[in-house]
Amino acid sequence: MKPLIIVFSLSSVPKSVVLVYQSFKFVLHYKIKFLFGINILKLLLPIAILLLPIVLLYAYFNRKASDWSLRLFEMTQRLIDKLLSIAPVKRQNATEKALCIVRLDVVGDYILTRNFFAPFKEHYKDYKIVFIGNSIIKDLSVVADSPYVDEFIFLDHSIWNQYNGYIHSRQHAFRFLRYLLKFFIKRYNELLMLKKTHYEIAINPILPWGDILRDDIVMKHLDASFKVSVRHEPFVDRGHHSVYVSDGKISHFYTHLFNIPKVSKFLFEFHQDLFSAFFKTFKGVDLAPVPFGMELPPSSVLKESSQNLLNGLSSRYGVLNLGSSDFFRCYRYFNRIVRYLNEDIQLVICGTTPTEAKEAAKLVKAHKNAISLVGKTSLLEYVYIIKGAEFALGNESSIAHFAAALKVPYIFILSNGSSYATFHPYPKTLCTTHHIIYPTEFANLRESKKIWEQRDVNTIKPSAVIASIKEHAPHLLKENTPDDIDKDYFIEEV
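User: That's the sequence. What structure does it adopt?
Assistant: Structure tokens below.
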């Protein structure tokens, strides 16, 4: 019996960590399944959970917290990997062939992937189609994708969101400890659950950046005859990445890696290339261009409270979303824009955080026909609200993709330029009503191909947003709205 190879790097680890780790070495090395008739894993997991706090506290009070939070996170993931490699798994008796698609990112990536579920349903009619996604999109995906997906598996977002190193001080050690213990238990259990099903084909369509991502971890532990993804390659038209992580760490997770040229291309078009290559290789068919959009069933399928929420809106309304997943994408001057919007059209303000709720309260005072639904809607309700909107206005966030997929007549999005080409601007072949307003200086960066550099979204003048609305949908503004509202606003404030 071959011993397991331990991949931890212990050269710079405190002695207490080494001792704790070596306490598991006997089990990990020899794969002893039973000790005195007791399953060793049932003993190992509680011991690991009890000893982790000691290791963590030692690390936090003797090293830099910011360094150790990431190191311990990575070490915990490796420990999970090793435990899973020796865990006895009782396979479920599969009565049909299954194919799964893994996509753990949230709204933007999901919206630009989901239309490709349909070709799988068409060309793999004798397969069960399974979607493994993020719990954030659960309710929406079940409603929107049920015609094409036979089974949904949603992984806990609090555990599968990207680790962001939010612990920056020793005072947060106990908070991080709670998180890591939850992470250990939940991720182990969810990966163990996934290992119980055999798939004929498993596909990870995520755009590779060279790092081992959440989706790669899931693919590593899935039981599948064919594991498919994209080979990691540098962008051929960007000069900012001089060093790339080798895909040697990732390639052994997969049986097939497609060589899709990584040029600056909109994500939906990248998926068209990837899935075209897949169907050509596995089915010998040429995949026709997949249409972009989102079809939702009538709102009558929603629960009564959701229907009442939608019925309470005016017949004509627009949606303003104040939030974004990243603070540097959030525009601070919507108050200067809202006061010039046509008040015959109701303004529905959406968001999620308490800060956005405070901002919405101010905007309601500036617009006589505005209401705030910040923190009052589910994702599914939010999508149905956007579906009926006459216009959409907001930051580079979920509203940009929902509005495009739902064919909102007028869409105005403010962007600092990050994720250019991959997520914006929308190609006219996909959405003709999508208008992006960038900082002025971003035009020069785009021309010089330094499109990875981002600028402060708040350098966009409110007048630029008004100018875009006036050009494409002047009826959304009050009559006699001045061209230079910045000057007008300044005079009134004085």
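The first helix runs from residue 15 to 22.
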